[in-house]
Input
Amino acid sequence: MPHFYESTLIDTVDGFQCKSYANEHPEGFVIVKPKYIPKDSISGKGLKYRFLFEKCLVRFNQFAPKNKLEGYVNEFKKKFPEYIYDCPLHKNWFYVVPKSKIKTVHDGRKGLQELLQVPEKNLDRYLKLVIELVKLLEKSGVKSESMGITHSTLLGNYTFGKSDIDMIIYGKENGWKILDFLKKAKHEKLKWKTDKEWTEYYKEHKTSESSHFTEKEYVKHMKRKKYEGLFGETVFTLFTVEEQEETWFKWEEAEYEPKGLATIKAIVSDHYNSHVRPGFYEVEKTKLIEGNHKTPKIDNAIPIKRIVTYSIPFVQQALKGETITACGLLELVKPKHEEKYYRVVIGYFDAYLSERREKEFIKAEI
Output
């Protein structure tokens, strides 16, 4: 199962609900982030509970206190080892759903088309808002057939006034069309956070992702992104996913050798793939710089070419021509059909349990 759309919901035969976490996957598996696990399957000490699908569920949260998260993950690995994939190519592990464990795949594209068939008189305020947002996004030139819905919007367990509208955009070019359109779009219900609101958000929600930024830096980075906004006072989030023929890597095409935590400074030469997950920034004139960690030794004859992110807060973080600083796991990439190069990766699952959780970041000089 090499290609499987990112941000797609999967129900498993064991009662888990998971969300796919990439567009390319190892054969026989889908890389996922577990979302909800039945309480009778695993203890959720330190995590929150939800009542969904007639069950009491533990809501998996990678940003839970590290000591709580570590105990939960260790228990999960012990009880459900088949949902952990130790990748020999990456020398790292991933949460996965084996193909044999998939019960239901919730098709976001099909779900939106079904929603559009419901007569308006039978829609509640939330669903009317979703359709109105879709009609606005279609003005970008992207048809609704290249859009989808996910999370509570798709499953129908939303709460008006609290639940976000989560949408999938299929295809990288479609993603950029919509994101560029939203930079200039005008609609009475479309709003973006002001500088003041982003500053307040920064103060109230300071996390490891934002701790490396001053208030002004954080506001500048977030204000220019258009994957999250407000529509009718409801938050909407856009997830761009790759079509099968446009994925930027294939799972079996390279091996990766971890070298340790590293901080680099570089110039962005291409940001086209920075709006998907995992996404990347092609970089040049790269140099290792000192960080709050031991700097790994590298072969200076091999270039550091990419900064890769699995973490949503760091998508669309930098543009072509900008100077970028990043801290993450340095890997030596050994492609089958190209020359070796180094890359820095932010947001692997193991990072949330290690020192990298507090130290990883991507920052542009803007």
